[in-house]
Amino acid sequence: MLKKRLIFTLLYSSGLFMLSRNFRLQAVGNLDWLQRNYDFSRISNYIDELVVLDVTREKRNLDEFCEVLKSITLDNFVPITAGGGVKDVDSARKLLRSGADKIMINSAIFNNSNLAKVLSEEFGQQCVVGSIDLKRSRSGEFQVWSEDGGKLNDVPARELLKRVLKESVGEIYLNSMDRDGTGQGLDLEILELLPERVSKPIILAGGAGNSSHLMVGLEDSRVDAVATANLFNFIGEGLKEARQELVSGGIVLPMWDLEFRTMHEKSRPHSLGSHE
Question: What is the CATH superfamily name and number for domain 5-268?
Answer without folding.
Answer: Aldolase class I (3.20.20.70)
